[in-house]
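Hello forum,

I keep getting stuck at the same step: I have a sequence, I want structure tokens, and every attempt I make locally crashes halfway through. Rather than fight my setup again tonight, could one of you with a working pipeline run this one for me? It's a single chain of 445 residues.
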Amino acid sequence: MSHSRATRRDFLKTQAAAAAVGAAPYFLSSRQASANESANDRPVIGCIGVGSMGSGDARAHASHGDIVAVCDVDSRRAEKAKHDGRIGKGKADAYGDYRRVLERNDIDVVSIVTPDHWHIKPAIEALQAGKHVFIQKPLTLTLEENQLIRNACDKYKDLVFFIGTQQRSDAGKFMRAVNMVQKGLLGEIKKITVGINGGPKGGPFRKTDPPKELDWEMWLGQAPKVDYIDKRCHYQFRWWYEYSGGKFTDWGAHHVDIATWAIEHDKQGMGPTEIDGTDANHPVPFEDGYPTVDDCYNTAHDYAIKCKFPNGIEMIVDSRSPNGILFEGTKGRIFVNRGKITGQPIEENWDEGKYTDEDRTRLYKGKPHEGHKNNFYRCIREGGLPVSDVYSHVQALHTCHLCAIAARLGRTIRWDPKQEKIVGDEQAAAFFAREQRKGYEIPRV
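Reply #2:
Ran it on my machine without issues. Output:
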């Protein structure tokens, strides 16, 4: 790269200023971006976590900028990404420690696609290092982490922080459903059923030595030190509360997010006040909210969690309904998932003339509707909040984490959304945060 990082940033700021005074926007699409900008003005990108999802994201990032670094605690994955002709092209540097990516002054953007318990620490450190951040969902592991990352984004407002909840960019289904709810076309919403499937059962699994290509100590990070089980690692980390929230945060980060957005409870101080976890089952015995065995999947596999909101809406987050979101109002009901949007209001086009380009721009926070990652890079160039912003995502994840806590304890818990505290239950309140292993503490900014 012949331009310095500062030069690129000055260029981007100039483009944002021009757009602010009515000049033609610099980027209209990723294809036009590639044609219009010189190679020296393309963002320089580092990718932290390049497994299956991380590599897929990296290939998409490569159409917007130049990937110069890839990183994974599994050296096989790092090397594969380095030599992938759509990612590193054999020219990117491969690392096993994400800090080597963050310390590089030539990198403008980092993509973080790691297990859930490894999201917030590198994300906050990336902001501290002056990088724009793309990060996969679910953003956090705990309620406390919600506050920590929101505080960091407040401090570094000049940097774009974007979450990979791609359903927010689906104009034909999810955005249409959100618009229909927000415009009152279904009447007053009374009930929302969020079907997120149940987690798998599995185990007992055999404990072995970790493969030589994997830095198991680093993979564990803030989580407790335990023996290696291959089913704890890579994709299967989702089914262990030590590293994730199971389906509550896996699919919940998508569907609860859309539901929260639609009913406009995506702002700080809002959310459910009562979360009933009495109808929840786990694949192993639990005591005081913790699994009593350490060699089996432990996240909930069968449940129907009832969340009550102050405005009278009941949101049921369950494993038994079809995957998707059912909105039920006083005038009508619709169901939406990644494959379809159905219901009488859809078949009869109740939103005809009421779902326009202006509506899509409104939902996109003033930006033109386009591909998900296009929105991220547009915001880097023009400023403004992306469609998948930290503030709304945190609100959805409050509900997801509360569902998991209520399910683990098997009882109803109460949440004060203004103070962001679990109230009247010291044991439940203790799940607000968790102890981080020495050397893996999350920065407070």
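The mean pLDDT is 92. If your local run keeps crashing, start a new thread with the error log.
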